[in-house]
Design goal:
The chain has helices spanning 3-9, 23-33, 54-65, 95-115, 131-136, 183-186, and strands at 45-51, 80-87, 118-123, 143-153. The protein is α+β, with helices and mostly antiparallel strands. It has a single domain (8-158), classed as NADH Oxidase (3-Layer(aba) Sandwich). Helix 2 packs across helix 4. The protein is globular, with a radius of gyration of 19 Å. It comes from Microbacterium enclense. Its cofactor is FMN. Keywords: Flavoprotein, FMN, NAD, NADP, Oxidoreductase. Its EC number is 1.-.-.-.
Length: 189
């Protein structure tokens, strides 16, 4: 599968099976995803692997962040949860750029997991930046939680998925005052 096909065919899998990548497989996927563009090669990101009963720690923290007792059911929806952490502590590069790099790693990771046959769903929460979730994830000073990749096996599809195609022309423009964008002009520029 080409990179273009992987991007074009990508979708979120809100329901997954109990199949998950092994530790060594995950390491290989993260090594590949870590090749994302990274100004000053800071590698301002890390991931936290959450499996098995560790999901209960996340479940409790999610409810605590919501001001509830007990356990959220969300972490039991996938056998592997990957917490995405951005380290924005460097003063050499703006914080937004460090978060963008970490987000790029997360997206590249979701693509390589998908290509390997795993279903992925990137989940965020209103409380992602809460103290309860920061504590549960052991975040250090300067780190922020971006969300989680829920990962599992792709269940069999009984019907084809209808995906809306992106009308790229609606999302591409030129600088104000520049030439009008024409497909012919841009074919070779």
């Amino acid at each position: 599968m080409s990179a273009l096909e992987a991007m074009r065919d990508r979708r979120s899998w809100s329901k997954v099976t109990d199949l998950a990548p092994t530790g060594p497989e995950l390491e290989a996927f993260v090594a590949a995803a870590g090749r994302v563009a990274d100004h000053k090669t800071l590698r301002p990101w890390r991931i936290i692997e959450i499996r098995g009963s560790d999901r209960d720690l996340l479940a409790r923290a999610l409810n605590k962040a919501d001001g509830k007792k007990g356990y959220s059911s969300k972490p039991r929806r996938a056998p592997l949860i990957i917490a995405l952490v951005a380290d924005v502590s460097s003063k050499k590069i703006p914080a937004w750029e460090q978060e963008a790099t970490a987000s790029g790693v997360a997206h590249m990771l979701s693509l390589v997991l998908d290509e390997a046959g795993f279903g992925v769903f990137w989940r965020t929460d209103d409380n992602t930046r809460s103290k309860a979730l920061a504590k549960a994830h052991g975040l250090r000073k300067g780190e922020v939680l971006l969300g989680w990749l829920y990962v599992g096996g792709k269940p069999p599809r009984t019907r084809p998925v209808r995906r809306k195609t992106v009308d790229a022309a609606k999302h591409i423009s030129r600088l104000p005052g520049g030439k009008k964008r024409r497909k012919v002009d841009d074919a070779r520029s």
